Amino acid sequence: MTETTLFGFDGSTFVRTVRCVLARKSISYNQVPVNVLEGETQEPEHLERHPFGKVPVLDIDGMRLRETDAIVRYLEARDPEPPMFPKDAKERAKADENAALITNYGYDAIIGFVAYHLFPDVVGGKNEEMRQSNLDQARKLIRLILENKKDAPFFSGDAPGFADYLLGPLIAYATMTEDGAAILSLDGMQDWWDRLSNDEAFVATAPDLG
């Protein structure tokens, strides 16, 4: 059997998303750390894997996959149980919408205010106006996906799935800052976070931040 290899370091939220899905589906793999913060994604060896210098990259079944969405959807097609998406068409559409909203609008907003607190030098210093703008955008995003979630326990339906594993690593960083409370205070968000925080795959993939 061809070896499965994941390229990317544990501190990356997108890498953690893929690790969560691999863990839930009991797919064994080797991991090669590629540290974004240390510039390793821009080294020639990694640029051969991903010309845009991003992680994760997954080598699986004799092919190379780039980008979290493509990786997770292949893993779902390859190993459909446990599912990362609802089976009902309408529920799946909303779960897909949640995943797209998180990727397109949530990532930059949440990492934006997280960076203000945890690694301001990486983003050019502390900009209070930018911090507040990012926090406002993050809260707008959370309100919308909570609305989509309705009464379901998770953003992907009855069990944690792709959307939850996209958002969870971001919220984990948010809770390390004083702005995390502004996110968790939104109606229903703390309950979701408590449930995800007890999910076996999510717990098992927590990064060692030293």
How is the topology of this model organized?
Blueprint: E1 5-7, H1 13-24, E2 30-32, H2 44-49, E3 57-60, E4 63-66, H3 68-78, H4 89-118, H5 128-149, H6 162-174, H7 180-184, H8 189-197, H9 200-204
Parallel strand pairs: 1-2
Antiparallel strand pairs: 1-3, 3-4
Give a description of the structure:
Residues 2-83 form the GST N-terminal domain. With 210 residues, this protein is of the alpha+beta class. It has 2 domains: 5-78, Glutaredoxin (3-Layer(aba) Sandwich), CATH 3.40.30.10; 89-204, Glutathione S-transferase Yfyf (Class Pi), Chain A, domain 2 (Up-down Bundle), CATH 1.20.1050.10. It has helices spanning 13-24, 44-49, 68-78, 89-118, 128-149, 162-174, 180-184, 189-197, 200-204; strands at 5-7, 30-32, 57-60, 63-66. It has a 4-stranded mixed β-sheet, with helices on one face. Strand 3 (57-60) and strand 4 form a beta hairpin. The longest helix has 30 residues, at 89-118. The mean pLDDT is 95.
Q: Which features does this protein show?
A:
54% helix, 210 residues, GST_Omega/HSP26, 2 domains, globular, alpha+beta, 4-stranded mixed beta sheet, Glutaredoxin, Glutathione S-transferase Yfyf (Class Pi), Chain A, domain 2, single chain
